[in-house]
Amino acid sequence: MAATSLAVIGFFRRADGRQSVWRTVAAPGIAFLGLACVVCLTVANFPLLVGTTMGAWVIGGLVALSAVVGAVQALVLRARRPAVYERL
User: Fold this and answer.
1) More confident residue, 84 or 19
2) pLDDT band with cut points at 50, 70 and 90 for residue 78
3) Are 7 and 26 in contact (CB under 8 A)?
4) First-last CA distance in the chain
């Protein structure tokens, strides 16, 4: 969600420019800062949240692996079926 806040800023910077600065830069920027703090606190205290350090590594590894698999799938789709990729 933190990355989405940054994407909102990027999207509205390319838009027509008729939106207010609060909606296009300030509010998404504040949201990014808050969500980034939540991510940092969650990562720092993840073993406490999960219960064990090993469990934290396993769950964190699965999350990272799923991100890598998704990125690879997107690259393959973009190369093999660009029309489908564009619709996404």
Assistant:
1) 84
2) very high
3) no
4) 19
**What is the mean pLDDT of the segment spanning 48-56?**
90
Other Cβ atoms within 10 Å of 61 Cβ, number: 10
| Contacts of 82 by beta carbon, 8 Å cutoff, 6+ apart | none
Average pLDDT over residues 38-52: 91
The Cα 19–Cα 84 span in angstroms is 31
d(CA 76, CA 73): 5
> Could you please report the per-residue DSSP string of 4-70?
HHHHHHHHHHHS-S-S-HIIIIIHHHHHHHHHHHHHHHHHHTHHHHHSSHHHHHHHHHHHHHHHHHH
